[in-house]
Design a protein that fits this description.
The chain is of the alpha/beta class and 313 residues long. The protein contains 7 helices and 14 strands. A 6-stranded mixed sheet has the order 1-14-2-3-4-5, covered by helices on one side. Strands 6-7-8-9-13-12 form a 6-stranded mixed sheet. Strand 2, helix 2 and strand 3 form a beta-alpha-beta unit.
Length: 313
């Protein structure tokens, strides 16, 4: 009797070929298909002029990524009023000079920044399925997981020194202010990365600076405890990154994971967050890079965002 293996073998070959094509697209095209999103957010006090805020996040620079560097440099042509860097600049211990080269033209503009876990520590090779497992168990980063063993320490101090030399204000568990052209005074409150439990809200508590024209909050990873704290204290706008927008999204469905405890519906883009009957606008950047060990994106191209802040209705 002849075994009937022909059809299953053809199906298996077809699935393998489809997977190979998908992987080639995700790694070879979409992960380098950089784009700019534009968002309008009605958060400013009445009578205040619009502000153009460029948010860059999750660059995850690896040495030799020339296309990414050139694209980041080109963003200076937008001439933003303010640049907000929401962290995870590195995915290579030797990439600090290339990050600074990429961001050099943007550092001519007023800016603020927070760091993420990959600014402090180098990435490790992980089974992507672990993100789904950790999501089901409510464990993310150092929130519920044991500390990493043998972590590679990145030279983040070089980034900090260069940013501050350019006048960018560090907001890792800190408050800061900037004066823009025209005399506008902006105040900022930021947290160090909640993903590795470096956030210390008690150091910055107190709510928006009422002596400034406008105040906003900044954090790398949009963990609910941070969003709740900012919203309860009355910040009208919170900017975050970290999620990569899910990185591998299912068309017409969306993200499967966020690598933190925020829901997948808010893995990227503009949404709102409610706490104690108060509401803040939240913008989560999908970022423009990937972990060096998983250099793929699907239905989630790398991005930066130009947010135009306008007066509230």
């Amino acid at each position: 009797m002849r075994a009937r293996y022909g059809l299953p073998l053809k199906i298996g070959a077809g699935v393998t070929a489809f997977g190979a094509v998908g992987l080639a697209y995700a790694a070879g095209f979409e992960a380098r298909s950089f784009r700019l999103r534009r968002v309008t957010v009605p958060v400013l006090p009445r009578g205040m002029r619009p502000l153009r805020v460029l948010q860059v996040s999750d660059i995850h620079m690896v040495c030799g990524q020339r296309k990414k560097r050139a694209w980041l440099q080109s963003l200076a042509g937008l001439r933003p009023d303010l640049v907000v860097n929401t962290g995870d600049n590195l995915s290579d211990t030797n990439a600090v000079p290339e990050v600074l080269d990429a961001l050099g033209p943007l550092m001519e503009y007023p800016g603020v920044y927070v760091f993420g876990s990959n600014d402090y520590y180098g990435p490790k090779l992980r089974n992507p399925a672990r993100y789904l497992i950790e999501k089901s168990q409510g464990r993310h980063g150092l929130n519920g997981n044991a500390p990493a063993v043998g972590a590679v320490h990145n030279p983040w101090e070089g980034l900090r020194d260069a940013f501050e030399a350019a006048g960018w204000v560090g907001l890792s568990n800190a408050r800061g202010r900037l004066k823009l052209d025209g005399g506008l005074e902006l105040a900022f409150t930021g947290l160090d990365d909640p993903h590795i439990k470096r956030d210390r809200y008690e150091r910055v508590a107190g709510g928006p600076d009422k002596t400034a024209d406008f105040s906003m909050a900044v954090v790398h990873a949009p963990y609910l405890r941070s969003l709740d704290a900012f919203t309860t204290e009355g910040y009208p706008l919170i900017l975050a990154g970290h999620t990569h927008g899910g990185q591998l999204r299912i068309p017409f469905y969306g993200a499967l994971v966020t690598n933190c405890d925020i829901d997948t519906d808010r893995a990227k883009g503009l949404s709102t967050h409610e706490s104690d009957s108060l509401v803040s606008y939240l913008h989560v950047s999908a970022g423009c890079g990937t972990n060096r060990y998983t250099p793929v994106r699907f239905a989630c191209p790398p991005e930066a965002t130009l947010l135009t802040l306008v007066a509230r209705d």
